[in-house]
Design a protein that fits this description.
Strand content: 25-35%
CATH class of the largest domain: Alpha Beta
InterPro entries: FAD/NAD-bd_sf, FAD/NAD-binding_dom, NADH-Q_oxidoreductase
Oligomer: single chain
Radius of gyration: 22 Å
Pfam families: Pyr_redox_2
Protein name: FAD/NAD(P)-binding domain-containing protein
Number of strands: 25
Largest sheet: 6 strands, mixed
Keywords: FAD, Flavoprotein, Oxidoreductase
Cofactor: FAD
Length: 427
């Protein structure tokens, strides 16, 4: 009887999980004259396309996706269109909602790669009703349409002010992009204010400290204002109110403050981190749900050589994976490989990511690349010298392989012997 690996999500981690699983299955079939049974690899997602989320701060955002139908067809991955509503861990089943029609699929191994969403604090009145965002394609498209419509609105301080709520990775890339983008759209660059509001005492609190002076220097050159130690306490149709009592008139508040794992993680037993991510072992398996693996924004894995039996005791957060495509893609490769290996009776591979780095986009002509992780990271490239690297990552590295080359497509799922190139911390 055939077995099935179900992958929830078609993002970076989900796609790489599917390719890795099919790769190992195909290799095993070629080496085994009489395979015991078939293993189906099925991806469940709302659409058969990869949304290139690291680029949703850019213009022409509607084009920031890559089709997956032909790639799945070439590699033999089954695509199931719909959203997973529930996971029955005991019975090893998922419930899928496809345009209101519900069905149940059984799995032998499940890989949860459902991504994450912006944090929306309940204590901020008007947040859901009045903010824009770039965490999903539809919301980014809505923001771009709003920006393009600004010239048709009567000139006021609210029209000419954009407030980026959150000075983390995504907020900084967006804020640095906006001055040039608004000038191109509106033609009133001199009258436009871009303000970043960050509740931490530093800009980019998750960035390596070596990067922050260069970030502030570039933002200052671009005319972007930064307000630190400040939180958003209220948002309405005409502006935002801050914890300092200041009211800033704006028609364009953009919420970028933080990410949490998809709610499906709550249906799987086991420890979670403060972002709701499943704490997984060195093979990316959920310790309390042995048939389930997790990758990408739904998983928190060790990047060091820590004790598998003591996942929560680490020297620093730098030893954990970040919610970024830098980690999502290799995690997907390992999760897919290990889920297939488990069914094939093969040894699992220990997740490993030996090289880490951060690449931050800072507008038309600037970027920063720091090699390493945490405060040990050192700036290696900055300004125009770093821009080609960021462009290559955004426009080439993170895109899916071509569908016309089966061997090459499957090799993209190989978790070992890969050249590791640093991708953005906020990818």
């Amino acid at each position: 009887m055939a077995k099935r690996i179900i992958i929830v999500g078609a993002g970076f981690a989900g796609l790489m999980s599917a390719l890795a699983a099919k790769r190992l299955i195909n290799i095993t079939l070629q080496q085994t004259p009489e395979p015991a049974e078939d293993i189906e690899v099925a991806v469940i997602a709302p659409d058969d396309k990869l949304v290139v989320r690291p680029r949703l701060y850019e213009e022409n955002v509607a084009a920031m996706s890559a089709p997956l139908f032909e790639l799945f067809k070439t590699t033999g991955v089954r695509f199931v269109q719909g959203s997973v509503e529930s996971i029955n861990v005991e019975n090893q089943q998922v419930t899928v909602n496809a345009a209101g029609l519900r069905s149940t699929l059984s799995y032998d191994r499940l890989i949860l790669a459902a991504g994450g969403d912006n944090v929306l604090p309940a204590g901020v009145p008007g947040l859901k009703e009045h903010t824009f965002a770039v965490d999903h394609l539809e919301r980014a498209v809505q923001l771009e349409a709003h920006l393009k419509n600004l010239p048709s609105i009567q000139a006021t301080s609210a029209r000419n002010t954009v407030v980026v709520c959150g000075g983390g990775y995504t907020g900084l890339e967006l804020a640095a992009e906006l001055p040039g983008r608004l000038a191109k759209i509106t033609g009133f660059e001199a009258k436009t204010r871009v303000i970043v509001i960050e509740r931490a005492h530093v800009v980019g609190p998750d960035l390596p400290s070596s990067m922050r002076p260069l970030v502030l220097k570039t933002l200052n050159r671009l005319g972007v204002e930064v307000k630190l130690n400040t939180a958003i306490t209220g948002i309405d149709a005409g502006g935002v109110t801050t914890s300092t009592g200041e009211r800033i008139e704006t028609l364009t508040p953009i919420w970028t403050a933080g990410t949490v794992a998809a709610p499906l993680t709550r249906q799987i037993p086991g420890d979670k981190d403060r972002f709701g991510r499943l704490m997984v072992d060195a093979h990316l398996r959920c310790p309390q749900a042995k048939t389930i693996y997790a990758a990408g924004d739904t998983a928190c894995a060790r990047t060091d050589e820590g004790d598998d039996d003591d996942l929560n005791t680490v020297a620093s957060e730098a030893q954990y994976t970040k919610m970024s495509c830098q980690h999502a893609m290799p995690m997907g490769r390992y999760a897919g490989h290990n889920a297939a290996a488990d069914l094939l009776g093969l040894p699992a591979l220990r997740y490993s990511q030996v090289m880490l780095g951060t690449v931050l986009d800072l507008g038309r002509d600037d970027a920063i690349f720091a090699a390493g992780s945490g405060d040990e990271a050192v700036v290696a490239l900055s300004g125009a010298a770093a821009k080609p690297l960021k462009r290559w990552i955004n426009e080439t590295l993170i895109y899916p392989p071509g569908a016309d080359d089966l061997a090459g497509a499957l090799e993209a799922g190989n978790p070992v012997n890969r050249t590791v190139v640093p991708a953005g911390l906020g990818c």
